[in-house]
């Protein structure tokens, strides 16, 4: 028999928050929601309250000296979670401004306890708690009065089996405040401003009794309320299907390319298609999705450059229209990697998709907020890992300027992250720009090493032959391969090697 | 939708006043209704919030009934209804009733404009009675 206390965890009703908290909010805990003005504290509190409160588990929301209650109610009901019918039934608002203005913390405490007892409240919110703090100090009361107040409030509320939330404006975690010590949970909301962008972040500084996810987690406030974007690793559930991946190959939808890959792209692999602008990366990506659809598979495309439309890819546009391919078209400003991963995973789960295209990494980098760009490489690794864990095969395009002096596959040094690489290049032959393609890498599999010319028509990509009469193709300006040189370099058996002049 | 409370305000006064109400009686009933509103809203918006709404409703009602001219300090701890009661009682029966209805309607519309009809209904629903079903909406007597 287990004699330890069992802590029930309450679902907060805030998408992503339960994951970040480590499984929900401990019942009867004493929590602080802190952050600067405008960072979403009251919204978070209301969203949780409307989700958690029931007639059997009623909530009481004390307004103190912060936002006037009328304005708070006016603005909060703009969110879809606000349910007017819950007011005075499962949710009760109580104004404490008069009690607080007197600066008598004892009287405030008595009023809170009396109201909680009168309504048998199981969820208690005090907004804003900083007002209580300031009211106690303006009267010249010693600080231990506040400490005593917090201590007693914590004891009384927990003994009353109430889960309590203090909402307060704190500008620095270094504030010496007794509530930091007393509280069981400390949720800190921040607004990170860099250049002209602002990103909201949440940190679970403390959550007694359970393992919350460390670090800063981005969140967004929309008309539906707050959505927290848990890290990709936490969002991923399934283990990567390593075993047998090479036994199941995906057709690329480009004749000849499957052979070059050694039989197609191994299932669950990530493929990087790198090449200069206009070389045909997006066409290849569209063919990949179209081939999946032809085989009855669904796909997802994250279009960071331009939205697929009938003018440049009729087949893909039709697949999107018929919902066989989901379009993730992130228009929101200041995106985080975790938010994009969440958008992708939601669509993957919705369509049970097996193929994902990210077009392109260059557009992806521009779409995310500046504050994340410094960590783009690490973030990309998380994204690839999360998608791999979801069991999908991923094709990412990466625009790469032809330099002809070195062979690079990605401007981010991300080539090592992917399981397979296809590189496309322009070459100049007889005053014509032509395209060549090669499979550079397929992890754990044999593949072609040929550099093959290809063309693009309304039918898609058509892979041609090698260009055996030319050398130096990757230098951009190939020269004719002379049979005499071949003979000199590899003389027939029995003849000596002729030294090069 | 904004006027939804109007027939209920009229029905409530109708119900409470009965026939041939005199202005002192009208004053008492209007103030009694206001006290119920105060009781419902004070726990939520605080006494100061109710005072502010009350004073604003008087100001708005004055636009159509110029005699509703009650000036009171901006900051008072509680609503002082005595001046309103005296003012209403001094009017003719007809004028007092029209003024009382106007003040309550203005208050209701003000609240609806701030927190919406649904929440206003949730908070003040117990104050108003429903007009008799199937009967045409009538003005208060």
Q: Short summary of the structure?
A:
The complex is a heterodimer of chains A (501) and B (141). By secondary structure, chain A is an alpha/beta fold.
Layout of strands and helices, then pairs:
The complex is a heterodimer of chains A (501) and B (141).
Chain A: E1 9-10, H1 17-21, E2 25-26, E3 30-35, H2 41-52, E4 59-63, H3 69-76, E5 91-95, H4 97-101, H5 105-119, E6 123-127, H6 129-138, H7 143-159, E7 163-169, H8 178-182, E8 185-194, E9 197-207, E10 216-222, E11 225-228, H9 232-235, E12 249-250, H10 257-260, E13 265-266, E14 270-275, H11 281-294, E15 299-303, H12 314-321, E16 325-328, H13 337-351, E17 355-359, H14 361-367, H15 370-373, H16 376-389, E18 393-399, E19 420-429, E20 432-442, E21 451-457, E22 460-466, E23 470-471, E24 479-480, H17 483-489
Parallel strand pairs in A: 3-7, 3-8, 4-5, 4-6, 6-7, 14-18, 14-19, 15-16, 15-17, 17-18
Antiparallel strand pairs in A: 1-2, 8-9, 9-10, 10-11, 12-13, 19-20, 20-21, 21-22, 23-24
Chain B: H1 5-17, H2 23-62, H3 82-89, H4 93-124
Helix pairs in contact in B: 1-4, 2-3, 2-4
Report on the structure:
- The complex is a heterodimer of chains A (501) and B (141).
- Residues 234-241 and 494-501 of chain A have low confidence and may be disordered.
- A 9-stranded mixed β-sheet of chain A has the order 5-4-6-7-3-8-9-10-11, with helices on both faces.
- Chain A has 2 domains: 9-230; 249-478.
- The longest helix of chain A is centred in the N-terminal third of the chain and has 17 residues, at 143-159.
- With 501 residues, chain A is an alpha/beta fold.
- Chain A is built from 17 helices and 24 strands.
- Chain B is an all-alpha fold.
- Chain B has one domain (5-124).
- Chain B is 66% helix and 0% strand.
- Chain B has 4 helices and no strands.
- In chain B, helix 1 crosses helix 4 (93-124) and helix 2 crosses helix 4.
- The longest helix of chain B has 40 residues, at 23-62.
- Chain B is globular.
- The A-B interface holds A 63, 68-70, 73-74, 77, 84-85, 87-88, 92-95, 97-98 and B 42-49, 53, 77, 114-116, 118-119, 121-123.
């Amino acid at each position: 028999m287990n004699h330890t206390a069992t802590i029930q965890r309450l679902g907060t009703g805030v998408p992503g928050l339960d994951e970040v908290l480590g499984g929900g909010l401990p019942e009867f805990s004493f929590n602080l929601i802190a952050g600067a003005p405008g960072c979403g504290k009251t919204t978070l509190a209301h969203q949780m309250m409307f989700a958690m409160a029931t007639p059997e588990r009623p909530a009481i929301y004390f307004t103190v000296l912060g936002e006037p209650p009328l304005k708070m109610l006016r603005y909060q009901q703009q969110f879809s979670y606000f349910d007017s019918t819950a007011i005075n039934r499962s949710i009760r608002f109580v104004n404490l401004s008069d009690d607080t203005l007197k600066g008598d913390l004892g009287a405030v405490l008595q009023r809170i306890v009396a109201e909680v007892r009168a309504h048998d409240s199981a969820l208690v919110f005090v907004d804003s708690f900083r007002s209580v703090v300031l009211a106690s100090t303006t009267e010249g009361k010693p600080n231990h009065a506040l400490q005593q107040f917090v201590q007693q409030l914590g004891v009384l509320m927990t003994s009353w089996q109430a889960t309590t939330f203090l909402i307060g404006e704190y500008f620095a975690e270094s504030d010496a405040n007794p509530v930091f010590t007393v509280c069981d949970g400390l949720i800190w909301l921040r607004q990170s401003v860099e250049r002209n962008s602002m990103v909201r972040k949440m940190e679970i500084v403390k959550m007694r009794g359970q393992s919350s996810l460390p670090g800063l987690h981005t969140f967004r406030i929309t008309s539906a309320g707050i959505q927290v974007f848990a890290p990709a690793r936490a969002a991923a559930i399934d283990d990567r299907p390593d075993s047998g991946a090479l036994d199941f190959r995906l057709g690329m939808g480009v004749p000849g390319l499957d052979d070059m890959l050694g039989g197609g792209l191994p299932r669950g692999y990530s493929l990087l298609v790198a090449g200069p602008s206009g070389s045909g990366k997006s066409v290849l990506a569209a063919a990949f999705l179209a081939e999946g659809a032809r085989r009855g598979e669904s796909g997802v495309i994250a279009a960071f450059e331009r939205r697929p439309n009938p003018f440049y890819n009729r087949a893909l546009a039709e697949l999107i229209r018929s919902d066989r391919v989901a379009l993730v078209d992130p228009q929101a400003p200041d995106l985080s990697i975790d938010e994009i991963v969440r958008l992708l995973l939601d669509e993957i789960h919705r369509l049970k998709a097996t193929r994902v295209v990210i077009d392109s990494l260059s557009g992806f980098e521009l779409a995310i907020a500046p504050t994340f760009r410094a960590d783009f490489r690490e973030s990309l690794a998380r994204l690839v890992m999360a998608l791999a864990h979801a069991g999908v095969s991923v094709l990412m395009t990466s625009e790469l300027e032809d330099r002809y002096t070195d062979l690079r596959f990605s401007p981010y040094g991300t080539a090592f992250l992917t399981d397979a690489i296809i590189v496309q290049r322009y070459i100049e032959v007889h005053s014509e720009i032509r395209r060549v393609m090669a499979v550079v890498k397929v992890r754990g599999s044999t593949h072609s090493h040929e550099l093959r010319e290809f063309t693009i028509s309304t039918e898609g990509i058509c892979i041609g032959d090698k260009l055996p009469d030319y050398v130096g193709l990757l230098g951009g300006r190939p020269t004719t391969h002379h049979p005499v040189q071949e003979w000199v370099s590899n003389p027939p058996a029995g003849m000596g090697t002729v030294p090069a002049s | 939708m904004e006027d939804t409370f109007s027939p209920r305000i009229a029905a409530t006064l109708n119900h409470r006043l009965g026939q041939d109400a005199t202005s002192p009686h009208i004053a008492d009933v209007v103030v009694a209704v206001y006290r119920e509103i105060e009781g419902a809203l004070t726990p939520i918006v605080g006494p100061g919030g109710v005072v502010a709404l009350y004073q604003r409703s008087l100001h708005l009602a004055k636009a159509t009934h110029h005699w509703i001219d009650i000036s009171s300090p901006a900051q008072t701890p509680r609503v002082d209804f005595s001046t309103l009661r005296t003012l209403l009682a001094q009017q003719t029966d007809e004028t007092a009733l029209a003024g009382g209805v106007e003040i309550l309607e203005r208050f209701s519309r003000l609240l609806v404009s701030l927190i919406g009809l649904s929440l206003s209904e949730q908070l003040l629903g117990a104050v108003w009675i429903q007009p008799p079903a199937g009967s045409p909406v009538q003005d208060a007597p």
